[in-house]
Amino acid sequence: MAKSRETFNKKEKEKLRQKKKQDKQERKDARKSSDKSTDFEDMIAYVDEFGNIVDTPPDPAKKKKEIDVDSIEIGVPKYVATEEDNAPRKGKVTFFNESKGYGFIKDEQSQDSVFVHINGCVDKIQENDKVTFETEKTPKGLSAIQVKLV
After folding, report:
1. Could you give the count of Cα atoms lying within 13 Å of 43 in the half-sphere of its Cβ?
2. pLDDT for res 2
3. Residue 40 has what pLDDT?
4. Tens-digit pLDDT profile for residues 106-137
5. Is residue 119 left, alpha or beta, with left meaning phi > 0 and alpha meaning psi from -120 to 50?
6. Which residue, among 111, 94, 107, 110, has the nearest Cα to 134 in the 3D structure?
7. pLDDT, averaged across the chain
8. Quick check: 111 and 91 in contact, CB under 8 A?
9. Where exactly are the structural domains of the chain?
10. How far apart are CA 87 and CA 11, in angstroms?
């Protein structure tokens, strides 16, 4: 007589498969039985003036701010040169490499670091010298010209 090919392990796996199938069917039946008929009004959400999602519609009686449309700037405003841009500035040479001919000046007012080349110097400068200079717009940023010792 032939021995049955079903082992204990196979029986256990089959039981688990059947249990999963039954659980899945029960969940499906539960979803169908608890079918909520949702109204469109229940699904709507509103956004308040602070950007938060709320359930209540906005109150039209609230005061609305009038905004001048022409005052809104999109993008970066154009740079307008002022008279103080061309005025001589004062600063201190923080770094200067004589062999390469360039360095940096720290502006006293804005604390910005401005590039300086030896061609833009009137006097010979070294590190830690106090200087006056004018600036010029270059493709790589501001550059100091007319650099003179104080």
Report:
1. 5
2. 63
3. 78
4. 999 889 999 999 999 999 999 999 999 999 99
5. alpha
6. 107
7. 86
8. no
9. 83-149
10. 94
Please give the C-alpha separations between residue 116 and each of 10, 71, 113, in angstroms, as whole numbers: 84, 38, 10
For residue range 25-50, list pLDDT tens digits in order: 999 998 888 766 667 777 889 998 88
- May I ask the CATH architecture of the domain 83-149? Beta Barrel (2.40)
The dihedral sign for the CA sequence 51, 56, 57, 62? negative
Burial class (CB in 10 A: 0-12, 13-18, 19+), 121: buried
Instruction: State the Cα–Cα distance between residues 45 and 43, nearest whole angstrom.
Output: 7
| DSSP SS3 for 118 | helix
Q: Would the pTM of this model clear 0.85, i.e. be above it?
A: no
Query: 46 to each of 38, 39, 40, 75, how far by Cα in Å?
Result: 17, 16, 13, 29
Residues sharing a CB contact under 8 Å with residue 92, sequence separation 6 or more, in sequence order: 105, 106, 108, 128, 129, 130, 131
Q: How sure is the predictor about 98, in pLDDT bands with cuts at 50, 70 and 90?
A: very high
Strands (DSSP E) contained in 35-140 are: 46-47, 53-54, 89-97, 102-107, 113-117, 130-138
Could you tell me how far CA 8 lies from the centroid of its own chain? 61
